[in-house]
Amino acid sequence: MANTGKHIVEDVVCGFCGLGCDDLKVEVEGREIRPAGSVCPEAAKLLWRMDVADPLFSRLGSPCSAQEAFDEARVILNAARTPLFAGLGTDVAGGQALLDLAGGTGGVFDHAASIGLFRNFTATQRTGWLATTLAEVRNRCDVLLVVGSDPTPNFGRLFERLFPDSPLFAGEQRKVIFLGGTPGARASGQLARAEVSSLPATDLPEALVALTALVGGRTLAGNSFGGVPLADLAAVAAALSAARYAVVTWNGAELGNGDLVAERATALVDTLNITTRAGVFPLGGRDNIIGLNQLMLWRLGYPLRTAIRGGASEHDPALYATAQALKDADVLVWVSAFRPEPPPPFEGKTIVIGHAETVFDKAPDVFIPVGTPGIDHAGTVFRMDSIVSLPLGALRVATLPSVAEAVRRIAGGVA
Amino acid sequence: MRLRLKGGRVLDPANGENAVARDVEILDGRIVAATNETADQEYTLNGDIVMAGGIDLHSHIAGGKMNLARLLMQEDRRAYPEMRGAFCGCGGGRAVPTAHVTGCRYAELGYTTVFEPAMLGANARGAHLEMADIPNLDTGAYLVLGNDDYILRLIAAGAPQAQINAYVGWMIEATQAFAIKIVNPGGINAFKFNARKLDLDEANPYYEVTPRQVLLTLIRAVTELGVPHPIHLHGCNLGVPGNDDTTLATILATEGRRLHLTHLQFHSYGTEGDRKFSSGAARIAELVNASPNISVDVGQVMFGQTVTSSADYMSQYRNRGLASPKKSIGMDIELDAACGVVPFEYRDKSFVNALQWAIGLELFLLVEDPWRIFLTTDHPNGAPFTTYPHLIRLLMDRDFRNAQLATLNKAAQQHTMLAGITREYSLAEIAILTRAAPARILGLKDKGHLAPGGVGDVVVYKDDADREAMFSKARYVFKNGRLIVKEGEIVDLVAGTTHVLRPDYDRSVEADITRWFDEAVGLKAKHFRVADGELRGGAGPTILKCEGAA
Ligand code: SF4
């Protein structure tokens, strides 16, 4: 980090949306960071840094020293009966420190983006699924079924990553079918070389069930399913069956009935695999949610939405979801290092270990500003597929602690 | 810090010691020659058996597929809650225990080193993060190669061996691996092109490369790079009746070159009898006995619920109909490999399962050289590793074995020669299988023995005619000279290290690899690479340099 003059850093890894792009270019000048070259809107917004003073550590909105903030957080946690650790936007090291801390304090763990994840888990835990990862879709997928609205607003470079100029095996004529959505301008641009079609739908699970039946060779009585004319569904089914490697993708977080979509998409892919190859490619993974989930699985044996209490843990996807857990919690520890996301409204004591630019409606009991992984300090994040993880680097000298450091400072005196 | 274990009987086959009455001394974590110096701590053993820490060379303890198994089989976690003890109390589970439970349960059994045998390059960073959270064990991982599109493309194009070697060397270094594993050579890849099976000489539908070519190419690569452990092979046609022929052909294909056949039990099935499922153990053991270049581990099946978890998606997809409970996960991964997770219950009243159990034991008892066969259940695929003490008793106690056999599926009893096998393993042989031999085949010179210079991983067992009881709870376990188990209970947690291998390779290969990652994988090679500092919470790996590279 000796270089303080204006310089370009290449191949920057991005930890924001979960797609794991690692070819970003940014201009760094002292403490200023500006995306250089083309970048997605999400990364552009979240990478940008001005040379401004760090926010102060604070108690109830009044500035205090870092040590005072850590001490106050510790006092609050020591007195807590049922703390809730939520947000959890942090790198793996931050998650490890939080789990270490919770070994003493107990607490419920959930991530701000877990709604989509748990909609998908209803399918994975009931039947399992046949899935695939980014590099496979990128090179093998010749027919992609996108269920629901265009995911590009949330995953800005998705189709750019999935549709490179020369895929290894997918051939020239790659098909993309939007079921229940239409590609926006950005997606259309990234899909310029693919054959794109879209079908409006009113009931996605119903349309997927019909597709599965058609792929399975059954004849259906009726004119339309889920708002899609039978003839159109038959054409999609034919395309999927003829594919060498079909992929079905959706963003569970954006679909009210995402659990049903996940289940029906899983069944469709299962049926396709009887004769050809196919996989689900569920979207999600914002703010290292997958890294936190992986960590909890190997440490506790349970995914997110798990409570640690008295040296034992218990998983309940309903009870320990943030919205529900907030009702039972007396202390909220809100962690958000990737973006300035304020904590949800809460009556009890609140400790925020958060992004420097967080704006609060109501000042938390303790605010511990932290650096962002990938900007202020190095760290590891997982990609949405849960297999690949990436090393985030530091772009400038850190002046704020990382989540891991902050949590260790808090833990320093946990009784 | 000097530690003295007094009055034990030392079983150290690596140095020819068979229950020799002598003291064992550990100075600052290493074994030293006995002295008269005052010890900081002394343990009086009264004739207890002293062995080096156990080494498991094949047990699935970390990596993405284990987390998928945990996610899929929450039943396993709920049924086996947290361990008691004043520690972090992290997690539970039996078939797929959490990192903490893995480290503690292994330590209780007297194991101090365990190798994860199927790390995918794409998942290497995650696997290393997970291994760092396993207490009390040193670990290491074998990198899965041979189904990656990079190598198949090279083989198909007839690339020079030197280029393959350089790629393998780069991959070992980049993923911080210790050896090379091949899973269903080329078959996982063929499945991505919709092939449902791939025999030893069957061509991949896209690359037209055969498993034999993949195997021989990689055997040559590890030989020329000087990798101590031979290719660790999970062969073709796992679980398919008639795969005994494939296994025999695979052994012959090596033409005398070193090869390790893993979970051989799953590859020893014949097609005789009305059920077209029979034991091929005798034929295979005979050829193994005659082939000093071959080593094997068994992958013993034990009855009960488990979760099978493998990179062999082709086979796991074939077996998913047998899932119990009825659910499974499969995943094609990153132009690299794949994985399949299928919960399974081995039932003693099932003909097939009972015969699998018998086939495993036949292999154990018919393969003569204990230095070339290793005690594994392919945890958790044949059974959780916690069944090892029971397995040891089956091997050491013929009456016990036959009594167990008598309770199994009747037809299966008719189809095994097990009842007629009189061999009983000796304690010294168990020490070879579980310590001395794995250290030797892995090239770990300071492990698996109790001579001066060895690491202070030492286990004390109370001699007990009931070998299951004896091996279930070690009396003392020392890790690097620190007491971690006392009377079968965990008393301390220590951080282990991760063994990695550093071969010399031609670094000019990097340009092509970089291009491949940029264009095909869509990820930078430099980000795929796992840095030393990412291992063991910044402590970095324990490096073994390849010697004798060609
Ligand atoms: S698409 Fe996602 S990973 Fe890629 S640059 Fe944008 S925010 Fe980052």
Instruction: Specify which chain pair forms the largest interface.
Output: A-B, 59 and 62 residues
Overall residue-averaged pLDDT value of chain B: 97
Number of helices of chain B: 19
Cross-sheet strand order for the largest sheet of chain A: 5-4-20-19-18-6-7-16-17
Strand content of chain B: 15-25%
Uncertain stretches of chain B:
none
* Largest sheet, strands/sense/barrel of chain A: 9 strands, mixed
Radius of gyration of chain A (Å): 23 Å
By DSSP, the count of extended strands of chain A is 22
Description:
The complex is a heterodimer of chains A (415) and B (550). In chain A, strands 5-4-20-19-18-6-7-16-17 form a nine-stranded mixed β-sheet, with helices on both faces. Chain A has 13 helices and 22 strands. In chain A, helix 8 (204-215) crosses helix 9 (230-242). Chain A has helices at 41-47, 66-79, 92-105, 114-126, 134-140, 158-162, 185-190, 204-215, 230-242, 258-275, 289-300, 322-328, 403-411, and strands at 7-12, 24-29, 32-36, 58-59, 62-63, 83-89, 107-109, 130-132, 143-147, 175-179, 195-199, 224-225, 228-229, 245-250, 277-280, 306-309, 312-315, 331-336, 349-355, 366-370, 379-382, 389-392. Chain B starts with a strand and ends in a 5-residue tail after the last strand. The interface between A and B is large, with 59 and 62 residues. Strand 8 of chain A pairs parallel with strand 16 (329-333) of chain B. Bound molecules: iron/sulfur cluster.
How is the topology of this model organized?
The complex is a heterodimer of chains A (415) and B (550).
Chain A: E1 7-12, E2 24-29, E3 32-36, H1 41-47, E4 58-59, E5 62-63, H2 66-79, E6 83-89, H3 92-105, E7 107-109, H4 114-126, E8 130-132, H5 134-140, E9 143-147, H6 158-162, E10 175-179, H7 185-190, E11 195-199, H8 204-215, E12 224-225, E13 228-229, H9 230-242, E14 245-250, H10 258-275, E15 277-280, H11 289-300, E16 306-309, E17 312-315, H12 322-328, E18 331-336, E19 349-355, E20 366-370, E21 379-382, E22 389-392, H13 403-411
Helix pairs in contact in A: 2-13, 3-11, 3-13, 4-10, 8-9, 8-10
Chain B: E1 2-12, E2 17-27, E3 30-32, E4 41-44, E5 49-52, E6 54-56, H1 64-72, H2 74-79, H3 99-109, E7 111-119, H4 124-132, E8 138-144, H5 149-156, H6 161-175, E9 179-183, H7 187-192, H8 211-225, E10 232-234, H9 243-253, E11 259-261, E12 269-270, E13 278-279, H10 281-290, E14 294-297, E15 304-310, H11 313-319, E16 329-333, E17 337-346, H12 351-366, E18 373-374, H13 388-396, H14 398-406, H15 410-414, H16 427-442, E19 458-461, H17 467-472, E20 476-479, E21 482-486, E22 489-490, E23 498-502, H18 510-521, H19 525-528, E24 542-545
Parallel strand pairs in B: 1-4, 1-5, 6-7, 7-8, 8-9, 8-23, 9-10, 10-11, 11-14, 14-18, 23-24
Antiparallel strand pairs in B: 1-2, 2-3, 5-19, 12-13, 15-17, 16-17, 19-20, 20-21, 21-22
